[in-house]
Design a protein that fits this description.
Helix content is 40%, strand content 14%. It is of the alpha/beta class and 180 residues long.
Amino acid sequence: MSHPSSPRFPHPEPPLDRADAIVVLGCRVLPDGSPSRALSRRLRLGARCYWNGLGSSLVVSGGRRWGEHREATVMRDELLALGIDGSAILTEEDSLTTRGNCRLVARLLRERGHRRVIVATCDWHFTRAARGFRRHGLEPVAPPASWQTTPLPSPWLWVRERASFVMDEVIAATGSERWG
């Protein structure tokens, strides 16, 4: 008997969900100005979604400075190096947190009449990011699961993500957007 993942039992690709835009969330930038492995995965995922016609524009979001390098600028440069047309890239470079990403990207996209977004981030981060985008009036969609290449995160990342999730809820309940 063949294993279900063998070539005899191919997994059909699900229909691809189209969106108005693809949002790539920022992540660590290395001291030399190159993207970290996690950021590179996010950028490749966003580019793949774009090349497959899943959105008409790419939004790079992240205002954190890593030394001399700002996330959104590094992300834009990487997408250009991957062959994405610069006119398709929108840049949000003021946010410092996931909450800020969601709030500022939502404002940017609503001005353009966009509502439905594919969120290119690490799979362990998607749930919190999607909740933030919904909170700000967007309809987040996950990229195709088979395109995700995130390695298993360390236990520390899971703990950090859960703590951030709780913090987001507290901030939403109090109406405070002081951070991010």
